Amino acid sequence: MKKLYVPIITPFREDETVNYEALKKITKGLLSEGADGIYAGGSSAECFLMTKEERMKTLETVISAADGAPVIAHVGAIGTRLSKELAVHAEKSGASMISSVPPFYFSYDFESIKRYYWDLADSVKLPLMIYYIPSNTGNHLSAVQLAEIMDGRENITSIKFTSFDYYEMQQLHEMTKKEVISGKDECFISAMAMNADGAIGTTFNCYLGHYKKILSYLESNDCKSAYEVQCKANAITTELCAVNLFHGVKVLLQYKGYDAGIPRRPNGMLDETSRKKLIDCYKNNMI
After folding, report:
1. Helix axis angle, 245-255 relative to 223-242, nearest 10°?
2. What is the reported pTM?
3. How does pLDDT run across 16-53, given as a tens digit for each residue?
4. How many angstroms separate the Cα of 280 from the Cα of each of 169, 259, 269, 276, 277?
């Protein structure tokens, strides 16, 4: 059973304050659309543009609105101390799991990254999901190194593997026998073929139905139809990546009827021409 978790966005008002009521409605809406759970406070949520207090309150809001559905709390930060504080708060708030990118910006070596994850795992009893996204953090680790981190603590139970290297993903899966979750929406079908246990993707906020349909086709061995749906999803994803991703996702959520707000600066805004082009592409590629 492949699980699809939505890395929920953060709706900011015009003054860039968090709209917590809108966040509740988006959480409930995504779960009603068939999400298996919510990934809260991650990249899609613009977490590194938020204060510690905002990150804590948004997590509490999502957990409350999820009403028992699984909520994975992203607690990543550059420093171990802050990550541990966010992890302890997540555990007390009722999160199902914590997750974290590796520490970034400074050039941390492998031993430092390994120690970061083991310290974080030791700070709570919750399971921990590594969030591996080398294109953003600059930390490129091999499958052997990732396996060493994952095998070092019993409660490091999974990894969100956001990389195009599916050979490394497959090797990691075989080495650890632990859960591997794909993070590359545009290659969702490829990750499923390489036996990923599920996926977490930004575009799930807007067209989760495409990915659920791909899974349905794959389960019935209809690879041709699955590929066709992936192509439709990728047409929208390509348009999203050509503009400001953060605002683009919110524009599509707004089109769907959610009060998604605006991105927080320095993230930019779409002009009317780009907004219309994106929505037209979305409408033309619905299933």
Report:
1. 120
2. 0.97
3. 999 999 999 999 999 999 999 999 999 999 999 999 99
4. 35, 20, 18, 6, 5
